[in-house]
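Q: What residues go here?
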C-alpha cells in the first residue's frame, strides 16, 4: 500500500482571479481560456479556440503556464463548482476567464500536474469541494474555501508514473474525439450543401440550385426549396418519446443489480452519474443508436451512444417509417434551422421548456437525395457511436484505476503497464 502524505492545498499553490473583460474585447485578439473550456477538459486543448483582445500587461497578469491549474469559480450548482483543467504546456499571450481561479505552483517536486489533473476530478476531492462550498444564489469557490482544502499525495515519482499512465488514456480519448469532430464536420457540411443550400448533385452531377434548378417558395421554412420536394413536419414522421422522472428519492450513485443508468440532461454525452430501479423506468429506455434531444433545461442538446433510462426533459427520437434513419435524425437535429427553432420557442426564466417547438420542426424531403445522403453518413454515424462507446469505457477504466493507483493497490510497470 502506498503512503499518502497530507498537504494544505494553499501551501503548494498561489491562487489568482481571472480577467474582468469588457464585451467589446471578446471574440478577437489573443488566446483565451473560457469557463466551458475549463469545465469540459482535464487538460487545456493544444489550441485555444476562444479569443480575447488583451494588452501585454493583462497577458502577464492573467498568464497561463505549464503546471497551472484552472478551476471554475462560480456555478449554478455545487456539482459544477471548482472543476479543474491543467495546462500541460505554456500558452503565450493567453489569458483566462474571470469566472475561474488560477492555481500556480509555489514549489516543485511535491505535486505533479498530470497527476492532479485526475486527482482533482476524482470522487474524493469532488466530495471535499461539495462539503466546503458556499451556496448563495450561485455556488462560489473563493480563497477561504481554498485555504481549507487538503491534498493527500503519494511520492512525487509515483505521482508522475500515475499521471503519465492516465494521461495516455486521456490522449486516446482525445484522438477519438478528434476523429468524431471531423466525421461530424463532414456530415454536417454535406447536410448544409444538400438540404440548406440545395446544391446536391443533379442528374449531371452538378450542384442543383447553382446550376439553375427549379425552386419553389416554402412559407414554413421562409426560403425556397427544390420544386417537387415535400416538406415534412417532423412530428408526423418521427416519434418524440418523453422520458420519465422518478424523483430524487429513487436515485442511487452506484449501479447495482436491479438498477439501470439514468440519463439527465446534464448527463447527455457523458457517463450518467445516477441510477434508478429498473422497475420504475416505465419502458423509457434508450439503445446506443437512439438519438436523444433535450427539450427542457439546456434545450437542444443532442446525444447518441447512450443506454439506460432517460429523464422527462429528454425526448427519444425514432422514425415512424423507413423514410428516416437514426443517422439522418442525428444530423437533422444538429442543423442550424432545428436548433434555432427549438431555441425560438423555449420559454421560462430559470428553467427553459421547449416542447412547444416540436410542432414547428420541419425538414425538406426528397427520397432520392435523402437516400444518397443516408448512404454517405451511415458509416460516419456508426464510427462516431463506436468511438463514443470506447471513450466511455476508457473513462470508466481511468476513474476505476485512480484510487487503486493512489493507494498502491495497483502499480505502474516500467513499460507503462498496470500490474
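A:
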Amino acid at each position: 500500500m502506498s503512503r499518502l502524505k497530507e498537504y494544505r492545498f494553499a501551501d503548494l499553490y498561489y491562487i489568482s482571479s481571472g480577467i474582468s473583460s469588457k464585451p467589446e474585447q471578446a471574440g478577437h485578439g489573443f488566446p483565451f481560456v473560457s469557463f466551458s473550456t475549463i469545465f469540459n477538459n482535464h487538460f487545456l486543448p493544444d489550441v485555444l479556440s476562444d479569443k480575447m483582445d488583451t494588452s501585454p500587461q493583462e497577458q502577464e497578469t492573467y498568464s497561463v503556464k505549464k503546471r497551472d491549474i484552472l478551476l471554475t469559480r462560480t456555478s449554478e450548482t455545487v456539482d459544477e463548482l471548482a472543476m479543474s483543467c491543467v495546462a500541460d504546456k505554456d500558452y503565450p499571450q493567453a489569458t483566462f476567464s474571470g469566472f475561474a481561479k488560477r492555481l500556480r505552483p509555489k514549489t516543485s517536486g511535491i505535486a505533479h500536474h498530470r497527476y492532479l489533473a485526475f486527482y482533482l476530478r476524482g470522487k474524493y476531492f469532488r466530495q471535499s469541494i461539495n462539503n466546503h462550498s458556499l451556496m448563495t444564489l450561485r455556488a462560489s469557490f473563493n480563497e477561504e474555501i481554498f485555504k481549507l482544502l487538503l491534498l493527500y499525495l503519494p511520492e512525487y515519482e509515483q505521482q508522475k508514473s500515475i499521471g503519465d499512465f492516465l494521461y495516455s488514456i486521456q490522449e486516446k480519448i482525445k484522438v477519438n474525439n478528434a476523429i468524431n469532430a471531423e466525421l461530424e464536420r463532414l456530415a454536417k457540411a454535406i447536410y448544409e450543401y444538400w438540404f440548406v443550400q440545395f446544391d446536391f448533385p443533379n442528374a449531371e452531377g452538378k450542384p442543383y440550385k447553382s446550376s439553375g434548378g427549379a425552386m419553389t417558395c416554402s412559407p414554413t421554412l421562409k426560403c425556397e426549396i427544390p420544386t417537387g420536394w415535400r416538406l415534412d413536419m417532423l412530428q408526423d414522421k418521427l416519434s418524440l418519446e418523453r422520458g420519465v422522472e422518478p424523483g430524487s428519492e429513487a436515485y442511487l450513485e452506484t449501479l447495482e443489480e436491479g438498477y439501470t443508468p439514468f440519463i439527465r440532461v446534464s448527463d447527455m454525452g457523458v457517463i450518467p452519474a445516477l441510477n434508478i430501479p429498473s422497475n420504475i423506468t416505465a419502458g423509457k429506455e434508450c439503445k446506443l443508436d437512439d438519438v436523444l434531444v433535450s427539450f427542457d433545461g439546456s434545450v437542444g442538446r443532442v446525444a447518441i451512444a447512450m443506454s439506460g433510462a432517460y429523464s422527462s426533459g429528454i425526448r427519444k427520437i425514432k422514425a415512424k417509417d423507413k423514410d428516416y434513419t437514426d443517422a439522418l435524425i442525428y444530423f437533422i437535429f444538429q442543423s442550424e434551422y432545428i436548433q434555432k427553432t427549438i431555441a425560438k420557442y423555449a420559454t421560462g426564466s430559470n428553467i427553459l421548456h421547449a416542447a412547444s417547438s416540436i410542432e414547428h420542426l420541419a425538414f425538406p424531403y426528397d427520397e432520392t437525395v435523402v437516400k444518397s445522403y443516408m448512404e454517405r453518413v451511415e458509416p460516419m454515424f456508426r464510427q462516431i457511436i463506436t468511438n463514443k462507446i470506447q471513450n466511455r469505457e476508457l473513462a470508466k477504466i481511468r476513474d476505476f484505476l485512480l484510487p487503486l493507483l493512489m493507494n498502491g493497490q495497483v502499480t505502474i510497470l516500467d513499460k507503462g503497464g498496470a500490474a
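A: Context that may help when evaluating the design: The longest strand covers residues 26-33. The two ends are 13 Å apart (CA to CA).
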